[in-house]
Amino acid sequence: MSGKTTNTNAALFQMDGVPALGQAFPLSLQHVVAMIVGCVTPAIIIAGVAGLSDADSVILIQSALVIAGLSTFLQLFPIGKKGGFRLGAGLPVIMGVSFAYLPSMQAIAGDFGLPAILGAQLVGGFMAILVGIFIKKIRKFFPPLIAGTVVFTVGLSLYPTAINYMAGGTSSPTYGSWQNWLVAIFTLGVVTALNHFGKGILKLASILIGIIAGYLFSLCFGMVDLSAVGTAGFFQLPSILHFGIEFEPSSCVAIGILFVINSIQAIGDFSATTSGGLDRQPTDDELQGGIVGYGVTNIIGALFGGLPTATFSQNVGIVTTTRVVNRLVLGGAAAMILIAGLVPKFSALLTTIPQCVLGGATVSVFASIAMTGMKLVMTADMNYRNSSIVGLAAALGMGVSQASASLSAFPSWVTTIFGKSPVVIATIVAIVLNVVLPDPDKKKAKK
User: Fold this and answer.
1) pLDDT surpassing 80 at residue 326
2) Cβ partners under 8 Å of residue 396, min gap 6
3) Is the pTM of the predicted complex or chain greater than 0.85?
4) CA pair distance 60, 40, nearest whole angstrom
5) pLDDT-based confidence at residue 3 (cuts at 50, 70, 90)
6) Residue 79 forms beta bridges with which residues?
7) For 99, which DSSP code?
């Protein structure tokens, strides 16, 4: 009996092992708890910006969960032969809707609507496929300094979203009320306390627990309306082209650039997973399959109304911390995510979370994104050249987006691409400066 227990324990640390259900289930649930809020929050925010009805908001959240589950399955269990071309990395990662696209999606949703986001996502999926095919040649243009600058700028650009949500949401008649701020600060306090003083599952689920606590607290102020839950069904499959698709050129360019960046950034998550959980670096075939699979699932996601997905770094952190790389454990998490997406009542319940609660919970997430970018940046020697690249890229990106009226003399598509989100300008400036400015370290190496 003890020998069997030892074997099932060992299976947790093997990619293709078969662990006992009693061991696998809590570990799968741990991954779901870590990613569920991050996966659905962008959908909730975009539904509000796009002015979707309660029913359509539920469908958007459902689609986000379903596509996240399917995308994760493809990365865990790739299609194709090992050693040849295949879809999916075959590595222990979790996929979900990414905050990296949120600033641009908000701008597009406000100007052109949700169909323009999905059309741009479809184009972005093809861009990701191209990146995957030519990954070996273009990887050199995206060192940690550049990827870190982009991630740092994404985090900074999301702060206004969190603050507006903490105040109750700009469309709310109670925007800025003391009740909204009290609930938001209470939620943030719970999340922060658990992050710093909690242990185990309490720390891991700090954001989820914070939202639950804030949700219960908001009930005292009558902020929750459960009518949408009562009218929602118990089971529903996503429908193809429910929201439609529109190809708005400037939106396609803006989202397409972000897909290229996130494709390269995925290399970091794949590498962290393999080095932390498998004590090796990912192979070229794994990287290529992972990025091409990422592009394919985003194309499918666009057709079914699922917003852009990416690898989830918090789940990579779980893998590297626990060293549990078993595909069935992560597959169990993907199954839970998928099932949650097929239950409209669950998605409807998520739409009832007050915006001040979401703001209080996600401001720490956005801060973490910015600091993750800064850590990436700091892996490079911060000499005058590199400091200039990071500083100018962030300054121009944030500055132009904060003063987008400065582009009013240009055609409207210029404002959509460069003036609505700081990420596009920051990315272009960082890449160009990295190529153009002389690198003193390389000169020293040649001597």
Assistant:
1) yes
2) 425, 426, 429
3) no
4) 9
5) very low
6) 87
7) G
Q: Hey, what amino acid is at 98?
A: S
445 — pLDDT class (breaks 50, 70, 90): low
For residue 249, CA distances in Å to 109, 120, 301, 308 come to 14, 8, 20, 18
Residue 410 has pLDDT above 90, yes or no: no
pLDDT in tens, 158-195: 788 788 888 887 777 888 888 999 999 999 999 889 88
Please state, in angstroms and rounded to a whole number, the distance separating the CA atoms of residues 125 and 78: 17
Contacts of 107-112 spanning 24+ positions with Cβ under 8 A: 107/254, 107/416, 107/420, 107/421, 108/248, 108/251, 108/254, 108/255, 108/416, 108/420, 109/46, 109/49, 109/50, 110/49, 110/50, 111/416, 111/420, 112/246, 112/248, 112/251
Q: Which is nearest to 107 in space by CA: 219, 247, 255, 4?
A: 255
Which three-class secondary structure state does DSSP give residue 95? strand
Q: Find the distance separating the first CA and the last CA of the chain, reported in whole Å.
A: 64
Residue type, 325: V
76-103 burial by CB neighbour count: b if 16+ within 10 A, else e? bebeeeeeeebbbbbbbbbbbbbbbbbb
- What tens digit of pLDDT does each residue of 40-99 get? 888 888 988 888 888 888 889 889 989 999 999 999 998 887 766 788 888 888 888 887
Instruction: Report d(CA 119, CA 356) in Å as an integer.
Output: 31
